[in-house]
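Complex record, two chains
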Amino acid sequence: MWYVLITITFIFNGMIMLAGKYVSICGYSQSKSIYLFCYFSTALVLSIITLSIRKQLPELKALMLGILMGLFWLGASASIVTALSFIPATKFLPVFCCGNILCTFILSYVLWRERIKTIYGWVGIVLAIISIVLVMT
Amino acid sequence: MQYLISAIVFTTIFAQFYKFANKHRLDGLSVNAGAYLSAVIVLSLYLHIIDSPAFEAELVQIGICGGIATFITVFTFFYVVKLGKLGISWAIINLSFLFTVFVSAIWWHEHITIQKAIGLGLGVIAVVCLGKEQAAKEKQ
């Protein structure tokens, strides 16, 4: 079951980035606010349907945190769609993913005191930096 | 370049919020519903006050497809994490950029040089290594 679910998540996550790429390729980056509006509205409607199927009201604390998170999610999505109209996907996505992972490790150390515990962690960080340099230059 | 940096910064902060929600065992579906809600409110205000471009059918369709894909990704990811290790799952999900890179190279003929291909390969190895690091943390 895990393999089926991880494959579904893998493909659909790729499709999200592909949708962003398609918006910029078709010259819609000027109207990206419409794309983002439809994108978030659809996800909101599906979430409300799922919550009502579960017959459960949303937790207030979780909802409040989500409201704050949504602003960053929106900022990230708008930046990704805009960036994809300037930078080729073959250049943007590897740098974005590796940069994202690197920054997450740094911020996790600062905020949660999470240290790198194995050699794999250090190797991964060094390789991610080399990868970003190779793809960007 | 500034959009690339802002995309990384926003996504990193967003991921930390997820970490916070996970640590405090908050309901994932409620968190996401709140996130979608605030994004829709901000975009509605933006479209109403600042910019109101025409709703083109194709753009709306792509937006709906993107929204469905996002919902499915986030929804299934919660079950993926419940059934398997977070670190390994996290690494595999991060590798999904390869899917988009290959489609872009084939469909839109984006050129991949040898240097870029090596960078891509190293990126894949880096994600796998960092996934192993995450899995080791979970064991402890």
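Note: The helical segments of chain A are 2-25, 32-53, 60-86, 89-112, 119-136.
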